[in-house]
Input
Amino acid sequence: MPLATTILMIRPAAFGYNEETAANNFFQNNSGANRKELQQKAIAEFDNMVQLLRNNDVDVLVVDDTAVPPKPDAIFPNNWLSTSPEGKVIIYPMYSSARRNEKRDDIIELLTKNFETKDVQDWGEYEAEDRYLEGTGSMIIDHDNKLIYACLSERTNTVVLEKFASANGYQAIVFLATDKSGNHIYHTNVMMALGEKLCVLCEESIEEEWELIAVRQLLDSTGHTIVAITREQMHRFAGNMLELKNKKGEHLLILSQAAYNSLRPEQKQKIESFARLLPVAIPTIEQTGGGSVRCMMAEIFLEKRE
Output
């Protein structure tokens, strides 16, 4: 499983509560705070996270969000954009019409100008059919073993998933996952985080035993050790982590402070045998946006141009 050494992050210009996405993102919470206050807090949390990553020798490419039109979820670029070790840049169909404005040609041009790019795929046509596949939110991609893990929801359509997997030479492993209230989990990356040799997985959320057995067996066969978390820990975003490799070759597992605080000592010890835990506090972003640190980072697997 390759680990990214460079990530893209979008500095928000109009962070806020998105009522459209709240229809199926039950991790969102409307605090009632005004937009200006939310934006100021989100900017502070964002800048602190970028500085923390850079202080730990992670290469962070920061792009400023554009103010018009307002994009309350622009801070989560991994839902519309991903890259692959094969040199692909991929754009995805998004559930929320308000979020489709996050797709920016200038960001694609920035990547193709500064990195070796062999192909740009745009799957956005499926938005016209009300079929969605929200990037590495919807899909946990094991590039080495050509596997995609995905829990189905309104944002992860089986047809688009299978077409994407077939077009790129992957096999899709599909299952249903639910939160503590029985709702379908909107994105796979809130209940599963896949690293080089580690998988943090909310096993409780996969209710069909045969589906859980299949996922476990595949993870075992690909050399991944599972650290199981509870639904309660998942709701603290303990499944929304990302393993990176810094400039020194050190493995880091990025997670929020809330996620870190929810982990038991034995879970932390097991994880740290694979990667150093690097927690960052982003309470406003988590509570209002319904996403955590993994959602804020789009991995850049592309080779830099000379």
Notes: The chain has one domain: 6-300. The first helix runs from residue 35 to 55.
